[in-house]
Design brief:
Chain lengths: 169, 317, 423
């Protein structure tokens, strides 16, 4: 299975978003891959509202089985969420559980005017009624259990890779 | 020798009973996790759903409103249900044994016990007798340990000083009876602080304390010289007039932290105290409320540190 | 009376240093011969002791039988069975029962109960002061007549030094032996562990070595002054050993013993608050333990005792400082003595559990010579066994050695020629 080139996906994602955002639209990246994507989008779209980041570790529904991951990043939303037009950015959209958790985090900061979702890759396999308004591209992985994840090299270039899920033997 | 009962076979933290014997990376993980909880406590909604549906029992065999409250706030911010039990005033006085009390509480579907007890080691006994999936946090046992206090102290130091490996830390006062001091010493030495000093009269310094990796000073001025961090200990009322010390006044004269004495430490030294303070006994008000005091941030960080400990324990099971 | 032939055993006699394979013949409660059978001897019973050691039965100076008063912890019967199972044929029991052994009637009752069980011999130690209160002298002569072999305060303190002085003067008048636990109660008060690194680390109130050495110094001075025969029970410190060594060299009539636990363990064994290591005196520094071993080797310490103190579960399932001090010990005395001996000659190794304590007790020296009372222990010196509650006959199951593998176990125990235990 060959995974697509993230740089190409990023360009397509930015193109699809450009007509739909205003300069005060707030981008919020989900740690860690989503933050990298959001940082790039923030530049490419020339947004003025500072970038927000959230870590969903404290809101995950599988905490009871998997525990807390070692490094939880602080969430930081440097603008007032209430009434704001917000786009949550993630790298890979899969079950939808991360997005569900991210929405809960977001609502603990305030009541946004509108929330949309942007994902670099949609790999299918949804377990919740969640869909993205903006998608860089889709890959069909069927029954594949391995996780698709985004990596960032030292020079800032992004790459997609497959790996065993955390907690698997 | 038995295996350290706080750690599971995989090296994961199962209970927090003492800092003594915990590996450095376990401590660092708690501090890192606490940092993200600090950001949670700065939000408008200070609550996360991590421990939703879990029951945390605060079992205090020795009364302490302040410590119990900080654990209660921490548990509630994690969305746990909190049950407070002042056992000191109920079953124990009716003659029920410690283990019977605990077995009864465990039968009420507890997920976590926060235990304070007047006897050193009591939380070990409790942890040994509970089923695998119930976690115990030591909230202070006798003179032995107060690990969350030790952790919040090193969290505070890291917040203001960052690199542990360049610090000189002075701990002043009644080391003999202090569980806080013991936990501080283990936390500091584990995190690589090269010079930990303890300062006090010979009556309040326990024998062989240097085996814990500290330098003993009986002269306050010498001990404070060049310190980056000054940690004051509370002097209990009952120790002030007797065979250990002649009087509170004389203690203040010899070991009280005054603005003049603080000048001996580094200019940017921070002053800490676990509370509650005896102003004019171990610390001068001018210091307690002064520029170098970080006593109130300690309290704030204490909540986040306790949230981190609870989250890590409950997630490991 | 039964005639017993113990055949082909390794005869080990600490009194004479003898160590050779042979037969031993017992009749009418006494040893009648060894090597060749006496003329006309026909055995009612033959014990095959091939591969086993045949030695005099052990003498234990520190055994709490818990009767009267503490029958929920142990009974005379359960503990005397345990003694026999440990190869012990004589025990001395301290007076800290409830009520204390301060009246002849109580002592007679204890002696009668013990002799009706016909197991191990019991030698009561009487109370030195009434109710062990440390103030008024007990009727020592009356108690001696009832069967007390010595007088003691057990772990109870004297009200003041005047009482100690008077007690030793009075005992010296009638040449009665006085056994004392050297511990200054004020210095030891509220302490639960040796004052040192481990107590500091665990935040346990400490008992300084000074609590023992101050008491030994005081007792030795008073003993010198009064000329009383003094035996020091359970010494635990290096300094204490050297003080006794000097006193003996000076001709002071003093003897002393040590608990088998203290010969092997130190404060380090407390680990994570193991209440089985809550003992009195406390387990001390490894240096102290080494000095106790050296004191045994050079004869400064006369006896190893089990310091048998059965404590029930409820007394141990408590935080360390609230747990009751004490450990079961009767069935561990033999293997712990063998372990202490290491590779040294067996007759020498067994001396602190046979001839040494017998001299302190004032009973005839245990020996395998013809004419001696047939109190015997036949044991397998190489058998390994695991210390666990089910392996112990004592009602007390708590010992710091729980879970340890120990070597050496009694197979037959004879008291006055009767087999009182066999495995």
């Amino acid at each position: 299975m060959r995974l697509p080139d993230p740089e190409a996906l990023l360009a397509r994602l930015a193109d699809s978003m450009r007509p739909e955002v205003a300069s005060d639209t707030g981008l919020i990246g989900i740690h860690t891959g989503g933050v990298w994507v959001a940082e790039r989008l923030h530049d490419m779209l020339g947004l003025e509202t500072p970038l927000g980041t959230i870590d969903v570790a404290f809101y995950r529904d599988d905490y009871g089985q998997r525990g807390l991951k070692p490094e939880v990043q602080p969430s930081a939303i440097p603008f007032d969420v209430s009434g704001h037009d917000v786009i949550i950015v993630d790298d890979v959209l899969y079950t939808g559980r991360t997005v569900r958790a991210a929405l809960n985090v977001l609502f603990d900061y305030g009541r946004p005017g509108r929330v949309r979702l942007a994902a670099l890759v949609d790999r299918g396999g949804r377990q919740l009624p969640i869909c993205a308004q903006f998608v860089g591209g889709a890959v069909d992985l069927g029954e594949e259990r391995r996780v698709v994840s985004l990596a960032r090299a030292d020079d800032g270039t992004l790459a997609l890779a497959m790996k065993e899920p955390r907690g698997a033997a | 020798m038995q295996r350290n009962p706080q750690l599971g076979e995989d090296g994961q933290l199962r209970h927090l009973l003492s800092i003594d014997g915990l590996p450095r990376d376990v401590l660092v993980n708690i501090l890192d996790t606490a940092r993200s909880f600090v950001s949670v406590t700065e939000r408008e909604v200070k609550k996360v759903p991590l421990l939703r549906g879990k029951s945390v029992f605060n079992v205090f065999f020795e009364p302490s409103t302040r410590t119990r409250t900080t654990f209660e706030i921490a548990a509630k911010r994690l969305s746990a249900d909190v049950i407070n039990l002042n056992v000191a005033t109920s079953s124990q006085t009716k003659g029920e044994s410690l283990l019977d009390t605990v077995a009864n509480l465990a039968a009420m579907q507890a997920d976590m016990f926060v235990v304070r007890h007047a006897s050193s080691g009591a939380p070990y006994l409790i942890a040994r007798h509970l089923s695998q999936d119930i976690h115990v946090i030591n909230a202070g046992d006798g003179r032995h340990a107060h690990p969350t206090q030790g952790l919040l102290d090193v969290y505070t130091i890291r917040h203001f000083k960052e690199d542990f490996t360049k610090l000189t830390v002075a701990i002043v006062g009644d080391l003999m009876h202090s569980r806080v001091a013991r936990s501080e010493i283990h936390a500091l030495t584990t995190l690589g602080v090269p010079e930990v000093r303890v300062i006090g009269p010979k009556t309040l310094i326990p024998p062989d304390v240097q085996k814990l990796g500290v330098h003993v000073h009986h002269d306050m001025a010498r001990g404070l010289r060049g310190a980056d961090v000054v940690m004051m200990l509370r002097l209990q009322n009952e120790r002030m007039n007797g065979a250990l010390l002649p009087s509170a006044q004389e203690y203040f004269k010899t070991y009280g932290l005054t603005p003049e004495r603080l000048l001996l430490a580094k200019p940017d030294a921070i002053v800490m105290h676990p509370g509650p303070m005896n102003r004019g006994v171990e610390i001068d008000s001018a210091v307690a409320d002064g520029r170098q005091s970080v006593i109130l941030p300690q309290v704030t960080f204490g909540i986040a540190v306790r949230m981190a400990v609870m989250a890590i324990l409950a997630g490991g099971g | 009376m039964v005639r017993v032939r113990i055949s082909n055993g390794r005869l080990v006699d600490p009194a004479s240093g003898r160590d050779e394979v042979g037969d031993l013949f017992v009749a009418d409660g006494a040893i009648v011969a060894s090597g060749r059978a006496p003329d006309g001897f026909t055995a009612d019973r033959v014990i095959d002791a091939t591969g086993l050691v045949v030695a005099p039965g052990l003498v234990d100076l520190g055994v709490r039988l818990r009767e009267p008063g503490f029958e929920y912890r142990a009974t005379l019967e359960s503990e005397l069975v345990a003694a026999a199972a440990g190869g012990i044929t004589s025990v001395a029991c301290p007076p800290d029962t409830d009520p204390p052994l301060d009246e002849p009637g109580l002592v007679e009752m204890l002696k009668r109960r013990a002799s009706s069980l016909a197991l191990t011999n019991v030698y009561p130690v009487g109370a030195l002061t009434r109710s062990l209160g440390g103030e008024r002298l007990a009727e020592m002569m009356e108690l001696a007549e009832a069967g007390c072999v010595a007088f003691s305060q057990a772990d109870a303190p004297f009200a003041d030094l005047t009482v100690l002085l008077r007690a030793l003067q009075y005992a010296a008048t009638f040449d009665l032996a006085v056994w004392l636990r050297p511990e200054d109660s004020a210095l030891a008060s509220r302490g639960v562990a040796h004052e040192g690194e481990v107590a500091t680390r665990l935040g346990l109130p400490g008992i300084p070595s000074l609590a023992e050495t101050v008491a030994i110094a005081t007792i030795l001075l008073v003993a010198r002054e009064t000329g009383a025969r003094v035996h020091l029970c359970r010494i635990s410190t290096a300094r204490g050993v050297s003080m006794v060594r000097e006193a003996k060299a000076d001709g002071v009539p003093v003897t002393c013993d040590v608990s088998a636990n203290h010969v092997h363990l130190s404060e380090m064994d407390i680990g994570f608050f193991d209440s089985n290591c809550r003992l009195s005196p406390p387990l001390r520094h490894p240096r102290d333990r080494d000095a106790l071993v050296a004191g045994l080797v050079d004869g400064t310490i006369d006896a190893i005792c089990s310091d048998h103190t059965p404590v029930d579960e409820d007394g141990k399932d408590l935080p360390f400082s609230e747990a009751e001090p004490g450990a079961t010990g009767l069935e561990l005395l033999l293997p712990l003595t063998i372990k202490w001996g290491g590779g040294r000659p067996l007759p020498e190794v067994l001396r602190p559990v046979t001839v040494g304590p017998a001299r302190v007790l004032g009973i005839p020296a245990p020996t395998l010579d013809a004419g001696a009372r047939a109190d015997l222990c036949v044991f397998d010196p190489s058998l390994w066994w695991r210390v666990e509650p089910s392996a112990l006959r004592s009602q007390g199951k708590n010992t710091p050695h729980l879970g340890y593998e120990l070597q050496g176990r009694a197979c037959y125990t004879l008291v006055s020629g009767q087999v009182v235990f066999e495995r």
